[in-house]
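cron nightly-structures :: item 1 of 1
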Amino acid sequence: QSYWIDQPRLLREGLAQDFVFQANLKFFRPGLTHLFGGYGIAIATNLPILEISRHRLPSPAETRGALQVSLQTASGPLTVFCTHLGLKFDERRRQSAALAHRVRRATAPIIVCGDMNESPESETMLKFLSDTALSDWGRENSAPTSPSNAPRARIDAIFGSSTLVLKRCAPVE
């Protein structure tokens, strides 16, 4: 919730990079006709952006989505997905299946990252990895990521194509 602070704009300016944002949930205060706050997902990059796609994921509760950005690297195109899955098991199962469908249709190589709201070793995430042929890049450094003030569980993940070479993957402190 931003309380009228345009956080995507502040991040874009602070990072001095291209910044692609997808608003997934918007809040309005009763009696007001304008946006009060909300949240979403974003990808920041210093690489040229070739294409942007915003996808909705199935959700009976809060709106969820997947942001897909194709980037031009020195080695060729790279497709990056960012997502934030739901809070309930059945919801995450449906959302990860819908995301897997999008990933399978994307141009490789691929990176998928975001808040999965469950461990990458869970049944749902293992099925996602199997369905997409991606690898769990955080497996070697399985540092906890949640809650942010005293991390005890790893619910945020970065998955990648086997054709990519991972140099480092770790939570930022």
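cron nightly-structures :: done
The chain has a mean pLDDT of 88.
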